[in-house]
């Protein structure tokens, strides 16, 4: 009874339209707030999902997640909605309510293959914008509009125009971790996995690369093209140090260290492998190392661990505070109230979409 009583106090009131009802709420209507009580029925209907996450979510916590999981999955069907979850989302989101998981560009591209009318973005704001760019006719919701990104916020469209004035004629490549405003000002976008190919596709001796200075440094070691880098950085990845990784290896010489290329160059040099979040996951699944350290946002280790029971994960706890703004209660609110819709000015969207599409067209 204690568990039931505690969960019941967390339940939102019966749904009424919030003050200043959003256009999406007007289009789709507001639904009643589902019950969020832990019951035998909820336990039965979510048991198969708990099996997926029982290695990373303790049994004592599941009664608090499960009512939200059931309510969200029921509402998705009622709303004809899908949830996109980035690899950095927490396990109860990634494994239990998401329909599509992956890195930011994977999510946006795969979202276009669904017949769903509504996309809920389990990730940060630039990802929701990219989903909107590639799916302009769908309704895109983000559970918390304040879920930002230190990289995306490190540069503006005005900054890009100033760079073009300083380096006339030099093409500009933007990492997908940028706002639609920035994407609209550049020649082409890239991901961490295709950055070298994108840079070399431009046929130029010099390329402006933004906004991540560490990814730019790592790209520069793999191409003869001179890279002019912006000064942004991911607040999660820049905290890792080579000395920290050497200590892990000293404690366990057999450990496999896998680093994201948003890390400083000296960190990548210590690692056994470096790649995008998707490449990191593939590496673990393919190689099944005995013990592994994922040098990236720590929720991804939980998600990969749920699928690779024979691998022991070391978890340095570098959390992304922006990703962690996305929670099951906020996802539920998005589907009930249809709030936090992501929109982009149509004229700006045409230009931003073109830079993303050029990258996609490379194959």
Distinctive features:
disordered N terminus; alpha/beta; four-stranded parallel β-sheet; Rossmann fold; 363 residues
Q: Between the first and last Cα atoms, what is the distance in angstroms?
A: 56 Å
Number of strands: 12
Taking all Cα atoms into account, the compactness measure Rg is 21 Å
Low-confidence stretches: 1-15
Indicate the overall shape: flat
Structural class of the secondary structure composition? alpha/beta
Strand order of the largest sheet: 2-1-3-4
Mean pLDDT: 92
- The fraction of residues assigned to DSSP E strands is 5-15%
Number of helices: 17
- The CATH architecture name of the largest domain reads 3-Layer(aba) Sandwich
Secondary-structure element order, N to C? HHHHEHEHEHEHEHEHEHEHEHEHEHEHH
CATH superfamily of the largest domain: NadA-like
CATH class of the largest domain: Alpha Beta
In helices, the fraction of residues equals: 40-55%
Largest sheet: 4 strands, parallel
- What is the CATH topology classification name of the largest domain? Rossmann fold
Count of folded domains: 3
């Amino acid at each position: 009874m204690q568990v039931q009583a505690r969960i019941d106090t967390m339940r939102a009131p019966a749904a009424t339209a919030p003050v200043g009802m959003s256009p999406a709420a007007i289009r789709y209507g507001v639904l009643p707030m589902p019950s969020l009580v832990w019951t035998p029925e909820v336990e039965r209907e979510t048991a198969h999902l708990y099996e997926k996450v029982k290695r990373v979510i303790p049994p004592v916590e599941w009664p608090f997640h499960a009512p939200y999981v059931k309510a969200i999955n029921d509402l998705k069907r009622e709303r004809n909605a899908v949830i996109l979850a980035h690899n950095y989302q927490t396990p109860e989101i990634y494994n239990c309510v998401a329909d599509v998981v992956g890195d930011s560009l994977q999510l946006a591209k795969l979202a276009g293959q669904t017949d769903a009318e509504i996309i809920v973005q389990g990730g940060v704001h630039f990802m929701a914008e990219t989903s909107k760019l590639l799916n302009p006719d769908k309704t895109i919701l983000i559970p918390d509009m304040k879920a930002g990104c230190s990289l995306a916020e490190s540069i503006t469209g005005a900054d890009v125009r100033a760079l073009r004035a300083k380096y006339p004629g030099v093409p500009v490549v933007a990492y997908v971790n940028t706002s639609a405003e920035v994407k609209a000002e550049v020649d082409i976008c890239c991901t961490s996995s295709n950055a070298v190919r994108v840079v070399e596709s431009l046929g130029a001796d010099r390329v402006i690369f933004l906004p991540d200075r560490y990814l730019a440094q790592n790209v520069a070691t793999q191409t003869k093209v001179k890279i002019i880098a912006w000064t942004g950085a991911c607040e999660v990845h820049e905290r890792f140090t080579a000395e920290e990784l050497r200590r892990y290896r000293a404690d366990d010489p057999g450990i496999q260290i896998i680093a994201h290329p948003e890390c400083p160059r000296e960190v990548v040099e210590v690692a056994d492998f470096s790649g995008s979040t998707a490449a990191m996951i593939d590496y673990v699944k393919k190689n099944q190392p005995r013990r592994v350290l994922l040098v990236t946002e720590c929720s991804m280790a939980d998600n990969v661990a749920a699928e690779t029971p024979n691998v022991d994960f070391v978890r340095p706890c570098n959390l992304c505070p922006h990703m962690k703004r996305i929670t099951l209660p906020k996802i539920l609110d998005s589907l009930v109230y249809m709030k936090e819709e992501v929109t982009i000015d149509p004229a700006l969207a045409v230009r931003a979409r073109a830079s993303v599409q050029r990258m996609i067209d490379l194959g």
